[in-house]
Specification:
This protein has 596 residues and is α+β, with helices and mostly antiparallel strands. The chain has helices at 56-62, 122-127, 129-132, 136-158, 199-207, 245-263, 278-285, 302-306, 311-318, 336-348, 383-393, 408-425, 503-512, 517-531, 545-552, 583-589; strands at residues 18-31, 34-41, 44-50, 70-79, 94-105, 162-163, 180-183, 191-194, 212-220, 232-241, 274-277, 299-300, 322-328, 355-359, 373-374, 400-406, 436-440, 446-448, 453-455, 483-488, 491-498, 538-544. Strand 1 (18-31) and strand 2 form a beta hairpin. The longest helix is centred in the first third of the chain and has 23 residues, at 136-158. It is globular and about 90 Å long.
């Protein structure tokens, strides 16, 4: 169809021209004599008029046409009659008067409406994903994803980077998540792994002297799924030689700010990006990926709880636990039902419960009396203690204080989730704001008491801060890494570090993590050997593409940014995978299925 023009290209400059368009029937309206077709293609929608006086044959043929049929139409562009202009459409000032109609294909009745943005059961959407993708919202999301990736490629090309593809079939190594394994037919009993990320590969490229590498990389992780996680995903992968942390942070900040402003000018992003230390982030927000669009900062009150007559708080504080909370403005009149909902949220995060203190509105905190305090612990609390808690948490009259006590990990996790929940209820999350920020100075290692060893909270290739190298053997838990995460609106957008480019330092970290010399070379020999051949100082970062597109498109799930995603259980409803394979295939691979 060489002469075909896209629907959205038709405008008033073409009035009187004869054009050919093709696409799907978005809507059909029969007005007695005239029949109107809204024709949809990848560009948009064009109204087409079938008049029996112009072409009786085409008018007769279009009467059998229904939604989602595929048509080719020749016609003359005309200005819409007075009073029929549709300013909501890009082509709303014109219409095509059909002179010829070709039915290219008919369509069964779709299982859901494609021409309406209605709520559809996701199982049905994923089963018929090729139809779901015809809908305007999905079309926009996938095109936005393309624009994001193109912007990234152009950006790194201008900054002297080389795009290099790395292998998909690699070796299984312990880097954090569970690997997807691929059995080898030629070497029975051995397996490839699908890469969780090209981490070691990009470090080897630095040893190879490429200096500035990037890749739009496919990654695979066999882990439990959630709204921002899929078993296969795409990340922007970067590595650079002869750089420090500031070089990488400045580069990525420039990329993200310029990308947001170019592709989604309605989004607000403030520069320079806020920087939080890991400790500050946990202390203020209970999370290393906090949403900074709103306050609701956490405050520790363990010292106040030590002197409390409320035994539930006193005992936990006295036994070394953490007592912490925050104030939700204007929520003092929460009902019993609403309080119970918050308690359940805390319990779902592992907390034993939730203490709430409602401060009756009117007057100042200084004049507060116990009769104006609503709490299940009211009879155990003294007014000066309540005032001290309010002062610490910045609570005023009419506010609701939420307190969790117990193990620090559980307390912070519960309060982080409660903070997000209260922000949602209070409508504090402005979707037009992208609160990009950096979290830096992560701990290099964390102690795993169940395994009696140190482990890396991210990956084992991060370098310690220069001033902390001397603490590696004496106080490993006090060592800070040259590591950084890019966060936005409660999501981790990317993470990276300056790597260990000297083999002795890398081996020392592996040793602290419980690896023997033999294990080190069995699992990471390719990297350790390479580091002995003049490896330059290097570092990088990996950033999720789907999460970025999700935020730019105002979606709540990365499945809405992927063409053929998996369900929460990892199933592909379109292809019906994962699925059993033929016994002959298993035999060829030397595999046998053992039933539970």
């Amino acid at each position: 169809m060489k002469d075909r023009i896209y629907c959205n290209q038709v405008d008033i400059s073409q009035i009187g021209s004869t054009l050919t368009v093709a696409g799907w029937v978005h809507r059909r309206r029969d007005h007695g004599g005239l029949i109107f077709i809204d024709l949809r293609d990848r560009s948009g929608i064009l109204q087409v008029v079938f008049n029996p006086d112009i072409n009786p044959e085409a008018h007769s043929l279009v009467q059998e046409v229904r939604s989602e049929w595929v048509l080719k139409i020749d016609g003359i562009v005309e200005k819409r009659p007075l009073g029929t202009v549709n300013t909501q459409m890009d082509t709303g000032h014109v219409e095509l008067h059909a002179s010829n109609l070709t039915i290219l294909n008919s369509s069964k009745v779709p299982p859901f409406y494609i021409n309406e943005d209605q709520k559809i059961d996701e199982t049905l959407r994923l089963e018929y994903r090729y139809l779901d993708l015809r809908r305007e919202r999905l079309q926009k999301n996938i095109r936005l994803r393309y624009e994001v990736v193109k912007f990234m490629r152009d950006f790194f090309d201008k900054n002297g980077f080389v795009e290099i593809e790395t292998p998909i079939l690699i070796k299984s190594t312990p880097e954090g998540a569970r690997d997807f394994l691929v059995p080898s037919r030629l070497q029975r009993g051995s397996f490839y792994a699908l890469p969780q990320s090209p981490q070691q590969l990009k470090q080897l490229l630095m040893v190879a002297g490429f200096e500035k590498y990037f890749q739009i990389a496919r990654c695979f992780r066999d882990e439990d799924l959630r709204a921002d996680r899929q078993p296969e995903f795409t990340q922007l992968d970067i590595e650079m030689s002869f750089v420090d942390e500031e070089d990488i942070l400045d580069l990525i900040e420039n990329l993200y700010v310029s990308l947001v402003r170019a592709l989604t000018p309605n989004k607000k992003v403030t520069t320079p990006l806020v920087r939080l230390s890991y400790e500050e982030s946990i202390e203020k927000y209970g999370s290393d990926k906090p949403d900074l669009r709103f306050g609701l900062e956490l405050a520790t009150i363990t010292d106040i709880a030590l002197d409390s007559k409320a035994q539930i708080l006193h005992n936990i504080a006295n036994s070394g636990g953490l007592v912490k909370g925050f104030s939700a403005p204007g929520c003092s009149e929460y009902s019993r039902k609403q309080i119970d909902e918050l308690i359940e949220i805390a319990k779902d995060c592992g907390a034993a419960g939730l203490v709430t203190i409602g401060i009756e509105d009117g007057g100042s905190i200084d004049g507060l009396e116990m009769g104006q305090v609503r709490s299940g612990l009211a009879k155990y609390l003294e007014i000066e203690e309540v005032k001290a808690i309010c002062s610490r948490m910045g609570a005023g009259r009419g506010d609701l204080v939420l307190i969790v006590a117990g193990d620090s990990l559980i307390v912070n996790r519960a309060l982080s989730v409660l903070r997000q929940e209260m922000a949602r209820r209070l409508d504090l999350m402005d979707s037009d704001v992208l609160s990009l920020a950096w979290v830096v100075n992560f701990p290099l290692l964390e102690w795993q008491p169940d395994e009696n060893r140190w482990d890396s909270p991210h990956n084992p290739f991060s370098s310690p801060k220069d001033e902390h190298v001397g603490l590696l053997l004496s106080e490993p838990g006090s060592v800070t890494a040259k590591q950084y995460d890019l966060i936005c609106n409660g999501f981790e957008m990317g993470g990276g570090s300056i790597r260990n480019h000297k083999v002795d330092m890398q081996k020392k970290i592996f040793e602290l993590m419980g690896h023997s010399e033999e294990q080190m070379y069995s699992e990471f020999g390719q990297l350790l050997n390479a580091l002995e051949y003049g490896a330059p100082p290097h570092g990088g970062i990996a950033c999720g593409v789907e999460r970025l597109v999700m935020l730019l498109a105002d979606e709540e799930n990365i499945r809405e940014t992927m063409v053929f995603p998996k369900t929460q259980s990892g199933s592909d409803l379109l292809f019906g995978s994962p699925s059993p394979v033929d016994e002959s295939q298993l035999k060829e691979l030397g595999l046998e299925i053992i039933s539970e």
